[in-house]
Amino acid sequence: MLKKLLLLICTGFSVLSFCQSDEVLFIGNSVTYFNDMPEIFKNIAASKGKNVSITTHTPGGTGFVNHVDDPTLYQKIKSKNYKYVIMQPGTGESAGHSYPVSVTAERGRKIRDSIRKYSPCSKIFLYEIPYGVPSANEYNVYFTFQQKIKDSVTKMSNLMQVEMVPAGESARNYYNSSPDLALHGSYNDIHPGPKGSYLVAASMYSAIFQDHVFPSTFYNGLPQNTAENFQNIADQVFFNNPAQWNSNVFHLHSDFTAGINGTTVNFTNHSANYTSVLWNFGDGITDPSLNPVHQYASPGTYTVSLTVNKNACAETYNKIITISSLGTMDQQVQPELTFYPNPVTDFCYIRSKEKIKNITIYDMAQRKINDLKNLHVHDIKLDFSTYSKGGYIISILYESEHRESISIIVK
User: Fold this and answer.
1) Which residues contact 66 (CB under 8 A, 6 or more apart)?
2) Reduced to 3 states, what is the DSSP secondary structure of residue 383?
3) How far is residue 142's CA from residue 290's CA, in Å, rounded to a whole number?
4) How many CA atoms, within 13 angstroms, populate the side-chain half-sphere of residue 228?
5) H or E element at residue 207
6) Partner of 213 for a Cys bridge, out of 40, 68, 205, 410, CB 3.0 to 4.6 A?
7) CA distance 411 to 345
8) How far apart are CA 308 and CA 76, in angstroms?
9) What are the pLDDT digits (tens) for 109-143?
10) Where does the record place the PKD domain (predicted)?
């Protein structure tokens, strides 16, 4: 029997249009300003359709111990309504060496409270810095110290009740497989080189916007393959376990998915830290329910928005939903997928009209080789350069919970 099915193609985007600018404040020292990392972040964001304006307070050799009593910083805090603020503790503070973590966190809270006073709806992040490599034979020392920084900044994040940018973990991820000093200009120097600053900026983008930085067309003068490798590392580190970085633990966050069952659209709320919600289905109907089910009267393109509120702050997330009448047999709608190249030499690309949720890679004996979770992307680049030659199966789980498999050959 023929049945009319609905085809939903969803694209998420911010409520702010590109002509509007999000104010971003970076507080730190030379580890932040080297190679003009905030400007790299700004240009990556622009390549992804986001318009940000940058303000920096990054005197060399400073930390929270200096910033907490710096009138110049407080003047900058007062001067604008910031959407995002990134706070970098000093090098010794980051590892808990120069002061106990609790003392640094208390100083950070004083700065945070001033930010909240003048930008009450701002999202504040701690920047986990990459450590320097002491020498070619001391990567083990680097890994040990990077772990101390991670542990200290995580504790600081909980004490200050702000979220994290795991840039140090992105650097550790790179050096785990490539101990080649590519991220730093020289041994025994904590300052990042151009590649290191690009990886940090990519990590900033992934964590702050909770959006995959790959693919970004802004490479900051790096070879495309190098820049895209750093983009994928930043995405992998953040999206493999967002909860580890306290993502959406302290900030107001709006998000939802849309599913289809016959002629009915099921909306699932994935927001955080809100006290009330309001849905606008784009057809003149609104609903304050948490997880509404909505019936569209006719085909068309609708902008569905979910606005979440807490205190005097609000955040809106939108999806464009296209509903079409299709005279087809009663079957599940298949996502449109492009995969290339096959056979694969080093890298392959997947592009889908429906957002991909998870990707699992198996060998031909059905052993799980890799598991990429919480992707929520239309496009992804997969690295097979370290895989043995032979056949593999890529299992793709879409946001609609439909699953599709691709058989590939790695040459």
Assistant:
1) 59, 90
2) strand
3) 46
4) 13
5) helix 194-209
6) 205
7) 5
8) 29
9) 999 999 999 999 999 999 999 999 999 999 999 99
10) 279-312
Q: Which of 119-123, 286-290, 347-351 has the lowest mean pLDDT?
A: 347-351
Q: How far apart are CA 109 and CA 124, in angstroms?
A: 11
Q: Does residue 237 come out as left (phi exceeding 0), alpha (psi in the -120 to 50 range) or beta? A: alpha
Beta strands in 218-336 (DSSP E): 256-261, 264-269, 276-280, 286-287, 293-295, 300-310, 313-323, 325-329
Element (DSSP H or E) covering residue 37: helix 37-47
Measured between alpha carbons, how far apart are the two ends of the chain, in Å? 45
- Residue holding tokens 């986001």? 50
Residue 106 lies in a domain: yes
Assess contact for 328 and 355: CB atoms under 8 A. Answer: no
Could you tell me the residue range of the domain that residue 53 belongs to?
Answer: 14-245
112 and 261 housed in the same domain: no
Q: Are residues 381 and 314 in the same domain?
A: no
CA distances from 63 to 90, 98, 174, 219, 352 (A): 4, 10, 26, 30, 45
At 9-68, the pLDDT tens digits run 344 444 433 457 899 999 999 999 999 999 999 999 999 999 999 999 999 999 999 999
Same domain, 115 and 190: yes
H-helix or E-strand spanning residue 64: helix 64-67
**What six digits make up the tokens of 256?**
């939802």
Tell me which amino acid residue 353 is. Answer: K
367, 378 Cβ separation under 8 angstroms: no
Quote the CA–CA distance of 40 and 26 in Å, as a whole number: 13
CA dist 364 and 393 (Å) reads 7
Tokens of 36: 């003009």
**Nearest residue to 170 via CA among 223, 130, 126, 125:** 130
pTM of the full structure: 0.78
**Token code pair at residue 66:** 């200096």
Tokens of 215: 């693919």
Which tokens hold the place of 29? Answer: 């020292």
pLDDT at 329: 31
Provide DSSP, 152-203: HHHHHHHHHT-EEE-HHHHHHHHHHH--S-TTBSSTT--SB-HHHHHHHHHH
Q: Where are the alpha helices (DSSP H) in 210-340?
A: 224-239
